Amino acid sequence: MKAQEQYPLPPEEQKALVNATILSELLWLAVFWAGATVLHGLSTGDWIGALALAWMPDLLASLRPHWVMFALPLAMFAMAKGVQLWGQKTSPSFRAAKLKLNQGLNGELPRLRTAHLVLCMCLAGICEELTFRYVLIGYLLLLLSLLLPAAAAEAAAVAISALVFWLVHFQYRNFWMGIIAFTVGLILGAGYVLSGSLLAVMFAHTAYNIAVVMSDRFEMVRDPDYFGGKVPVSFALDMAEKRAS
User: Among candidates 232, 35, 5, which has minimal Cα distance to 136?
Assistant: First the structure.
């Protein structure tokens, strides 16, 4: 039996979840647009050109394939599964952290229709890489290169961007899930800096997201105590109601 059949998600919750995901990623896209404009102005002094999208050729040049696009998702998925096995064997707190995730957003995403799931994961992979790798690492390199040697500036930029990446993913603010989210940020940041390919990290981020959610689908069906209690069916609707009140 499929996860969507065993734990059906109400249509209104599916719609709310997809809409909320699209909205959040569009907000990241807006942050990227503003950030890329300011970054170009700061780095070149050409603010008129920045407003006229003079940064677009540089962005398009970074959208080239690189072999790391296939290695990065494998490395991230292997790391995440390794941390999961480590936590399961060594700490009861890992189970509590995982159950908290499963009872919220992460317990609903795998139950979306596959087409909607892929759409959400693609948007996340594209919009977040534009923001956290292209813009944020660009800002950090611009600043840190004034203070540090090139290699040190790149290493610091990758580490700081990974920390910010973890912090904005509020659902991962615990030890075990924080290790995974921070390391994912490190791998993506290092992949971007070393390859210079934004397309590679977009693809890697998207592929990793899809692999994790598909793995969760399988685990959801296999583990009868996956949710550890009540199955979430209204996370997005509840969040919308809280914002409205």
Answer: 35
